[in-house]
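User: Batch of two.

Assistant: Item 1 of 2:
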Amino acid sequence: MNRYIALEGIDGAGKTSVSTALALLLEEAGHEVVRVREPGGTAVGEGLRKILLDGPPVTSWAEALMFAAARAQLVVEVIRPALDRGAWVLSDRSVYSSLAYQGAGRGLGMDRVRRINQPGLRGTWPDVVVLLSVSPAEGLARQARPDRIGAQGVPFLRAVAEGFARLADEEPGRFAVIDAGCPMEQVVAGAWDALGVPG
């Protein structure tokens, strides 16, 4: 069964709100839910999050490698144990964010970023990626206080959005693309359908 669910999209797409709603629905259906965010979710990950999102500028490759390090720790400490005991994992971002942000947005190349993440993931990739699609201008307008990466501007977010769209085209069986400009009730309903929760 598909239990590792990633909420993806550019900054301001509404990932956290949709994750909260899905968690409530899953819990009401009697399932254990573990919510995580990237970067974060572990002591190592939260430390790297402060550097990545609120710290001084870092090079593009340093950024990509720190995201990969935080993710590797999260997989071992939280995600894999949760999946092994039958829980659902709802992740606010995943490896696909690195492919889109650093691979496409920073121009490092999605295949190269994929390769540096694979050893730490140990084969643990999201079963379903709910991609919330919103225009870069709207995404920026929705942010009260953009972090260092989210404040890169429309051209950068446009490149990231194009990266996400390319990934969705390449892996149609894994991605569910949802128009995040719709009313929240419709967005959540579409995301819920994508999870394929049994009966």
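Item 2 of 2:
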Amino acid sequence: MISQNEFITMSLDLNLFFLRIMKEHSFFLEVGFTPRDKDMAERARMFRERFEQLLSEATALANGNVSANLLTSNQATTQYTLEAERLTNFYTGVPFNLELTRRERMLRPTGPGVQDAQLEGEVERLDRRAYQLTAELVNYKEQLLRSVRTCNMFTVNYPLLIEHILREARHFMNMLLMLVRRESINRPEDLISQELFWNRQMGEHAKFIAGLLDPSEEALIETARMFGREFDELTVEAEQVSRHAMDIANVTANSLQETERLRDFKSAGTRGLLECRIQSIIIPLLGDHVLREANHYLCIMGACT
């Protein structure tokens, strides 16, 4: 059983990271449909706006109530987020609440003292609403994935990407459920399952990057493919450790090293997209999005930057 303060801080840290991720998942889906499926695009738009509203409410609760690690590790936003949103708006015409991003960047961490029961209640209501909205998004993503895989619908998003973001939504829901039960989401015994999950996600990020770069970017494509192969191997190692209750120290050390390298690759790539030095069909916000997820994973492994 976690304390009141731990519940509040863990919940707000989690929501500030994942609500923005869910908002952007909705956006990536929204802009990926053909004119025939404008109703599906409209549903994605509504999810984007609802997650943005919930993120705004979470940000209002978060000032003075989140961990220093969240704020210093570039999980909620990075140095690129504002420009990535601005340029993505320019390319797509989809509006982004830049003021909300600025508000997040000005948040202060938890100070000394005990947080009150009223705040605990507000945060629990936030967790429950985030769970419900994410459950609705999961149902939408499942419907979309079925339609795409049975060739009843076309989207520019890879089927694997839809499965990938569906997996992340379910993961978010599991974390929220643990918190509402007052269970810690940072238990050492759960680290291997987190590594198994995030190594798979990191590997798929690398594969998506390789597939979205212009064919002329041969060196970057090969680097991305190399990361994909290495994280596939790390996923297998984590799965073996999980099944046989082996020591996870070596897997964690290797995962940490590779994630730091991938984080640096993503950071350079996002900067290159913003400066128009990389030819691709990668929307700038996607570069920043996967960079934040690498930062989040590093924090899980105890290496917040």
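The chain has a mean pLDDT of 96.
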